[in-house]
């Protein structure tokens, strides 16, 4: 979902930038396009920021499992192999 959102927002940003340049570096007279020209760079920055947070939380959860998933009864590695002792299976 985030990749398609980034694609759409990058298309919108590119369209607004081209329209801005072709309109002699002034905002459009059309109200919808003017609002779009103002808000699209802000939304693009926000989407990049939130996607960075999403990737960072995924990496943190994998690192947590790699470091803290090995206790006495259960061993978990990143390759998705789980080993249980007899006591853990009861």
Q: Could you explain how this protein is built, in words?
A:
A two-stranded antiparallel ribbon has the order 1-2. Helix 1 (2-22) packs antiparallel against helix 2 (31-68). The mean pLDDT is 76. Strand 1 (74-76) and strand 2 form a beta hairpin. It is built from three helices and two strands; from the N terminus they run ααββα. It is mostly helical. The protein has one domain.
Task: Give me some keywords for this one.
7% strand, two-stranded antiparallel ribbon, 90 residues, mainly alpha
Quick description:
The chain is mainly α and 90 residues long. The mean pLDDT is 76.
The proportion of strand residues reads: 5-15%
- Termini separation (Å)? 41 Å
Number of strands: 2
Percentage of residues in helical conformation: over 70%
**Poorly predicted spans:** none
Task: Report the order of strands and helices.
Answer: HHEEH
Q: Please, how many domains?
A: 1
Give Rg in angstroms: 24 Å
Oligomer: single chain
The chain-level mean pLDDT equals 76
Number of helices: 3
């Amino acid at each position: 979902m985030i990749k398609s959102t980034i694609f759409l927002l990058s298309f919108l940003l590119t369209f607004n930038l081209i329209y801005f340049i072709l309109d002699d570096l002034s905002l459009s007279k059309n109200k919808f396009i003017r609002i779009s020209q103002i808000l699209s760079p802000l939304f693009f920055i926000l989407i990049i920021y939130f996607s960075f947070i999403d990737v960072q939380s995924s990496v943190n959860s994998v690192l947590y499992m790699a470091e803290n998933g090995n206790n006495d009864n259960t061993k978990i590695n990143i390759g998705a192999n789980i080993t249980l002792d007899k006591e853990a299976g009861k």
